[in-house]
Amino acid sequence: MSLQTYERQLSRFAPEILSILRIVTALLLLQHCFTKFFGFPGTMTAPATFSMIWWAGAIELVGGILVLIGLFTRPAAFILSGEMAFAYFIGHAPKGFYPLTNGGEPAVLFCFIFLYIAAAGAGPWSVDATRGR
Q1: What distance lies between CA 55 and its chain's CA centroid?
Q2: Domains of the chain: which residue ranges?
Q3: pLDDT number for residue 133
């Protein structure tokens, strides 16, 4: 099989893979707000109400659910992308320049994945796609 044939076969699945990327990314993000608010999975104690960490958890909870089901995906993903950039520059960058050493790799990846989803949309397996039909 030639490389071009292989690429054509893979590109047929790009819309569905976008949906899978959106769903998996949202599920991974929801772990962060669940540990903030419910201590699961993890051992974090609940943040003080209306603190910066509480607001981050609230944004992650609402935005994560919206992105997970694919409802208002573009604006939700854009807000989450901004929140992840904010999290990186507030929580990680002061610890060092390199994301590998400051623990910021997940925040950077989340930021750019959500930015991509904001630009590309939710994909075919979403409430947005169903509403558009």
Answers
A1: 16
A2: 22-132
A3: 64
108: amino acid identity, one letter: V
| Helix%, strand%, coil% for the chain, nearest 5 | 75, 0, 25
The confidence score (pLDDT) of residue 114 equals 98
* Separation of alpha carbons 60 and 73, rounded Å: 13
Instruction: Tell me the C-alpha distance between 96 and 99, whole Å.
Output: 8
Give the separation between CA 8 and CA 11, rounded to whole angstroms: 5
Mean pLDDT of 18-33: 97
Distance of CA 31 to the CA centre of its chain: 11
Query: 34 with 41: CB under 8 angstroms?
Result: yes
Distance CA 26, CA 23 (A): 5
* Tokens found for residue 24: 């998996």
Structure tokens given for 96: 């060092």
Report the alpha-carbon distance of residue 131 to residue 30 in Å, rounded.
Answer: 24
